[in-house]
Specification:
Elements lengths: L4 E5 L4 H12 L3 E6 L9 H4 L4 E5 L9 H5 L3 E4 L10 H19 L7 E5 L24 H20 L3 E5 L2 E3 L8 H9 L1 E5 L5 E6 H12 L7 E4 L5 E3 H12 L4 E5 L1 H17 L3
Helix pairs in contact: 1-7, 4-5
């Protein structure tokens, strides 16, 4: 087994911590970038591993840990600003401007074999037209999605100009141990015994278990044919909203009161959000 030197940004997060675990399982020399204020609960086992080292830093100022960036074989860029209370300026400062600064440093590396960027299907935007793949037009509706798409464009530009060895991964909904973003609303809703649904509950959602996502990320990171490409890594099948509601209902042992939201209403909401950001020039 090859002994890679690895850097994982956002190492304390849901996906980042699982990447760390898999790298250590493969006996890679692994560094995890976290902020001074980060919760390290997900890294408790990693910290005990002799092949792991914590690095403290802020993705907005990567020049402060420059030497830690340029001496890696693999970089998994899983760090990002995300959350309900993150402003659009914060998204751009961290997810776009911070990435640019990081890439300027990474470009100096003589060792780097792959830069894996963990993006999101949020870069595609809401879809009401059926199943999508990598050929589907990207038209994000949220500031987070816009920042992720901006990051992807920067990376593809680096690939075209410098042959920078990038691979982009876009996960859909991810579930499994340590999940704390995206599925928390389900837990809160379950406690209130009601559940919002779309017309007829006929909509589909793509979900992937965290272990399967990590397997896909690692395969892409180590495959030469994945350089300069973008992959949506989803689960083996799509799930209907009814299936998800029924499983959550079964798990919590409650029967939900269902609140129906028409699809046309969601389209209007997304349209108004888009118009709002155009008006304010964002």
């Amino acid at each position: 087994m090859i002994e890679y030197r690895v850097l994982v940004t956002g190492a304390n997060g849901f996906i980042g911590s699982h990447i760390v675990d898999e790298c250590l399982r493969r006996k890679y020399i692994t560094k995890g970038l976290v902020r001074d204020t980060s919760n390290l609960n997900f890294l408790e086992d990693a910290i005990k591993n002799k092949n792991f080292r914590l690095i403290y830093g802020d993705l907005r100022n990567p020049e402060k840990f420059k030497e830690e960036v340029i001496d890696n074989d693999l970089i998994f860029y899983a760090g990002a600003a995300i959350g309900a209370f993150v402003s659009e300026d914060e998204y751009m400062e961290t997810n776009v401007e911070g990435l640019k600064k990081f890439l300027e440093i990474a470009l100096e590396s003589k060792l780097l074999k792959r830069f894996v960027f963990i993006s999101s299907v949020a870069s595609i935007g809401a879809n009401f037209d059926g199943i999508v793949d990598e050929r589907y037009p990207q038209n994000p509706k949220s500031p987070y999605g816009v920042s992720k798409l901006s990051g992807e464009k920067i990376l593809f530009d680096y690939y075209e100009k410098y042959k920078f060895p990038v691979t982009i991964i876009e996960p859909p909904g991810v579930y499994g141990p340590r999940a704390r973003v995206g599925f928390l609303p389900f837990l809160n809703i379950a406690g209130k015994r009601w559940f919002p649904t779309m017309d007829g509950n006929s909509g589909f959602i793509s979900l992937i278990y965290i272990d399967d996502l990590i397997d896909g990320i690692m395969k892409a990171a180590l495959n030469e044919n994945a350089i300069g490409k973008r992959f949506i890594i989803g689960g083996p099948r799509l799930y209907t909203y009814n299936e998800i509601i029924n499983e959550v209902s079964k798990s919590f042992g409650v029967n939900f009161k269902r609140w129906k939201i028409p699809v046309w209403f969601l389209k209007v909401v997304f349209f108004l959000i888009e118009m709002f950001f155009r008006i304010i020039g964002k």
